[in-house]
Amino acid sequence: MIEIIGVSKSYNRGAVKAVDNVSINIRNGEIFGFLGPNGAGKTTLIKMIAGILNADEGTIKINGMDIKENPLEAKMQFGFVPDDPNIFSRLTGLEYLNFMADVYKVPAATRLGLMQTLLQRFEIAAAAGDLIQSYSHGMKQKIVVIGALLHTPPVWILDEPMTGLDPRSSFDLKKMMREHADAGNTVFFSTHVLDVAEKVCDRLAIINKGRVILSGSMQEIHTQLGAKQSLERLFLEITENE
Amino acid sequence: MNRMLALLKALLINSLGISVIRTKARTDKLAYLKLIALGALIIAGLAPTIWLYAKMLIQGYDLLAPIEQQGALLVLGIVLVSTMIFFFGIFYVINYFYFARDAQNVLALPLSGWQVLGARFSLVLVYEYLTQLPFLLPPLIVFGLKSGAPLAYWLYACLGFFLVPLLPLSLATIPTLIIMRFANLGRRKDLFKILGGIIVLILAIGYQLFIQRTGINNMDALLIQNLLTEQNGVIKMISRVFPSAQYLALALISAEKITGLLNMLTFTALSGLALALTWLIGDRLYFKGLVGSSETTARRKVITSSDYSKMSRVAPAWLSYCRKEILLLFRVPTYFMNCVLTNLLVPVFLIIPFLFQPQDEKAIPWAELIAQPGLQTILMAVIVGAVIFLSGSNAVASTSLSREGREFYISKYIPLSYRQQVLAKLLSAYILAISGTILILIGAIIIMPLDLTQIFTIFIVCLTAIAPVTEAGILIDIFRPKLDWDNEQKAVKQNFNVIISILFSILLGGSVIFIVIRWIDSPTMAAAFMITCFSLVALVLYNLLMTKGIEQYRKIEG
Ligand SMILES: Nc1ncnc2c1ncn2[C@@H]1O[C@H](COP(=O)(O)OP(=O)(O)O)[C@@H](O)[C@H]1O
Ligand SMILES: [Mg+2]
Predict the structure, then answer these.
(1) What single-letter DSSP state applies at residue B281?
(2) Does A216 fall in a domain?
(3) Same structural domain for residues B284 and B333?
(4) A85, A108, B150, B468 — which has fewest CB within 10 A?
């Protein structure tokens, strides 16, 4: 469960308002999509949820834990996948995963099995002993995803996770997201691709210029729009008016 | 040529941060003013030193003029600057030619080897001009004014100023080009690059040693007499270190004569030749050394379960974080060269002059010195001072946040408290400082006959002395981290925090050592005093780090 209440954030001392008074409630057991064109403010909001950026206003709670008041407990609740997999390129994949496992206090007994399973599932087991520097963009993305899942977090926060993944891994990840949500957990992810949002999400919010313009289940959104306008048309209009 | 200039312009704007300054001037007036104030502060800080230098030169001129050796001032300046350029050049060339993150991007551009090399060479040259300015300009001006030099002198001086770095920089570039060409053949590129860098440095040190042995140290009374009686004899002697320097010096001294012109032409020709040779060799070797220097070993070998369990030992989070810090210091070539290697090399540089002293009765009588309590105290203070300076300048603590760069966001979202992260960084910096301390101590033991108690005492003093220095380094970097860089260079080499940290270490070490040397005679008292002082400062800084430092760390956004 993620509660976002009245969150705002601006860059350059107020010159750019990237997120403007956003409130969203993401429930357990659902995949929540965050859809918006480039520069809409998706990454900014996600970074505030993860504690990377400090919100100017508002509160964010993950499974009831406030990211400002209880940062460590809140951070244990989620696994985070950034949009740009900038990670320690001079560590090997295994060293990175081990670092993450240590940091998230994953016991020795579970970490080995989990690492192996995930590495095989994403088909990068053969590269695990090599420096991350030698990985392709997609492989980096995969190792970050695995690192984020090692401590079996109840909440997943993923920033444009499908970008850079091959169709097979993208399919796998979507399947894992579904399974995770169906087990009563929370998945929150952002995307700028309408197709992905329509197919994967239980509920979604459409964001533009830092403001949420529409939110709800697919059905609710369609009723709000009325029969005439399709979601695709709306999304195109938003992007054109840039 | 045009394309080379275009590339040079792009490199210059990028590496001097001109666009950033311009944007700041427009959008963030306060930051811009801060930047200007900082620049003014540096100049103001340097001014007294330069003034002192100029005064020394004037006195030297008056002293040397009666024996007709005043030209030595010029040659001394030129040789000093050439040597400096040679050494800095090695670092600059390795860093800017090969280690820069954007180095390989140019491979995709339709440019040939000499164009790219020329642009990068010129970029380094610009840095070298800036470096030599405060060292070379004073002797040129002092000599010119004092001797009432003719117009030709000033012309030669101007031309000479721009020609001086060409030869030493070429001497630094050519071996680097050759070694890097072969260093990149292997599969473990980073390792080979580091080894290549070390080999170049060893060659450079070897060259200096060779000069030192055959040159200045071997002079006897007769030689000195000859030198002094022969006009400009000193010039010939000093310029043995950099033989080409004497041509420029002689050209300047006899500017009005035809020999002056001849010497100037010789110097110009030599510099031109060196430049041409570098570009010729660079055209053939540079790209070959650069191509694939980002390819890393990828064995893509399936890992067995035993490998897994070997590689996945469980450690506490803070320890894992500290291990990551140290691993990256050793694995990123730029960090290794600038943080770890300086730690190892500075002690070696300090020891060498003593090791290669002439082994005759004129050598320093260490045993006698140490026998006197007062002198022993001074020796101890000097060793501690060297350790403080080394740990202040090794750039581990003072770039510990900056080095993370865009990866800093990881530190923000992992569930490891900022306090523990800071402590882990402190620990890794402390461990590196201790390794430098041990090397300096080993050097001291080789040079002087210290007994076990003395060694132990000095070690304990050093352990307390490096604590405030590393703490200060981390504090400085927390308050002005440099996270937005695209090139690892910028995190360590072009990071002003390192200079602040050096200044702090000089201030702290200097004041404590000054008190010890001035007022304390007994070694035991001195040790007790130093331990108390450093511990107190360490305690204060620790508290500051744990309160204000952590608070600030929380505010930094990834
Ligand atoms: N570090 C930053 N400094 C200044 N402006 C930023 C910064 N990061 C993002 N922005 C601006 O904030 C807005 C939202 O960006 P972002 O959250 O990255 O959008 P998205 O992820 O939806 O593409 C954009 O207008 C972007 O230019
Ligand atoms: Mg984004």
Answers:
(1) H
(2) yes
(3) no
(4) A108
Q: With respect to residue B180, please indicate whether it lies within any of the assigned structural domains.
A: yes
Residues 315-354 of B with CB under 8 A from A: 315-317, 319-321, 323-324, 327-328, 331-332
**Residue at A42 is within a domain:** yes
**How many domains are contained in chain B?**
2
Looking at ligand 1, which atom is closest to the CA of residue A19?
14
The answer to whether residue A99 sits within a structural domain is: no
Partners of residue B20 in chain A, C-beta under 8 Å: none
Q: Which amino acid is located at A31 in the chain?
A: I
Residue B472 domain-assigned (yes or no): yes
Q: Which domain range does residue B510 map to?
A: 323-555
**Which residue blocks in chain A are alpha helix, DSSP H?**
42-50, 71-77, 93-103, 108-121, 137-149, 167-182, 194-200, 218-225, 231-240
- B276 and B407 in one domain? no
Nearest ligand atom owner, CA of A45: 1
Q: How far is CA B367 from the centre of its chain?
A: 33
C-alpha B406 to ligand 1 mean position (Å): 15
Query: Tens of pLDDT along chain B (558 residues)?
Result: 677 777 777 777 766 666 666 666 677 677 777 777 777 777 777 777 788 888 888 888 888 788 777 777 888 888 888 878 887 787 778 777 876 666 666 777 777 777 888 888 888 888 889 888 888 999 999 989 988 878 889 999 999 999 999 988 998 888 888 877 776 544 555 666 666 667 766 766 666 666 555 554 444 444 455 555 565 566 666 666 677 788 888 888 888 888 889 989 999 999 999 999 998 888 888 877 776 555 555 556 666 666 666 666 788 999 999 999 999 998 888 888 888 887 877 777 667 666 655 555 455 677 777 778 888 888 899 899 989 988 998 889 999 999 999 899 999 999 999 999 999 999 999 999 999 899 889 888 888 888 889 999 999 999 999 999 999 999 999 999 999 888 788 898 888 899 899 989 989 998 998 899 888 889 999 999 999 999 999 999 999 999 999 999 999 987
Distance from CA of A50 to the nearest CA of B (A): 6
Which atom of ligand 1 lies at the shortest distance from residue B557's CA?
A: 1
Amino acid at B506: I
| Same-domain check for residues B235 and B337 | no
| φ, ψ for residue B382, nearest 5 deg | -65, -40
Residue of B nearest to A144 (CA): B410
Domains in chain A, number: 1
**A86 located within any domain:** no
Which tokens hold the place of B461? Answer: 């003093």
